[in-house]
Each structure stands twice: as structure tokens, then as C-alpha cells.
Amino acid sequence: MKKARDVIGLPIICVETGKQVGHTKDLLMDEGWQVEALLLEARHWFSDMTCIASADVVALGDDAVTIRSEEAVRSIEADKVFRTLLFGDSKLKGLPVITVNGQQLGMVEDVYLEPVVGIKVIGYELTEGFISDLKEGRRWLPMPDSVKIGKDALIVPVQASDTLEEIFVPKEE
Asked: Pairing state of beta strands 154-156 and 96-99?
């Protein structure tokens, strides 16, 4: 599995020319938890926001993202609404994950991507805060059957609390 944070910051390299076209700034996701595009860091303060559609990505490697050609870099469509991990009004990081019966499972720290192509979100990394992360570690929540994305929270089924798994086991003192 690959975390979104492992992709963010990677250089984007064109396999035709070997040229670096930018760095990944964030992931743009649709309501079905598919990664639609990779947001590129702006080259200049007042330049248009650019992205690369996930269909144009050859691989999300450990050291770089590779794309087919430089023509894959496009301006973002202004009328499309995306979810992001880190930036913008619709970012996921920091959103609480709450069950239908009102139990908070934690806050979204990162998302996990499918291992092969990496364009579908398959789960969340949840945190309960810095101290809790150190003492108890973070938890992994596999993608529930249904997720309601709200402005202030992600709402998941009650059974989602049963699927939480520990990611990091703290050192015993």
C-alpha cells in the first residue's frame, strides 16, 4: 500500500523526454474516492494551477511519478469540484471520522491508495493527536461500504469501528 503523503512532493518525470515537469503538491479526488488528478506545485505566484490526469500517469514510484508526455500537464477545470488531502476548502486532512451513532474514530491524517495503480483510495490513516500517536500509535480504517463526506466530518457506518487496526505499536517503557 502507498500513502498519499508518499506521493506528495515527488518529482514528475516525462518518460518520453526524461524532463521533470514539476512536483506533486496534492491529490485531487472525486466523490467516489478515485484519484482524478495530481496537482502540481505552481511555478510562479500568479500562474494557473496545473494538474496531470491519473490516466496520464505511468507509475507512482518510490522516488518519482512518471507520465507519458509533457502534454499531460493541463490547467485545472474551474467548474470541477475535487476533494484534496492537504490544500483548499475541501481538504480531508484533519476532518473527524464519526460513526452514524456519534462515536469519533479519529481524524484523517492520510489516505491509503491501492497498491497496483494507486488511483483508488482504499482506507484512511487516523490520528487522535500528537500525544496519542506517540503513546498508542495511529490507526488504519479500511474504506467502509459507505462514507458520507460532509463539510465538517466524514460519516461512516457503525460497523466501521470494528475494522480499525493499529498501524504503529509504541515502544514499551
From this structure: parallel
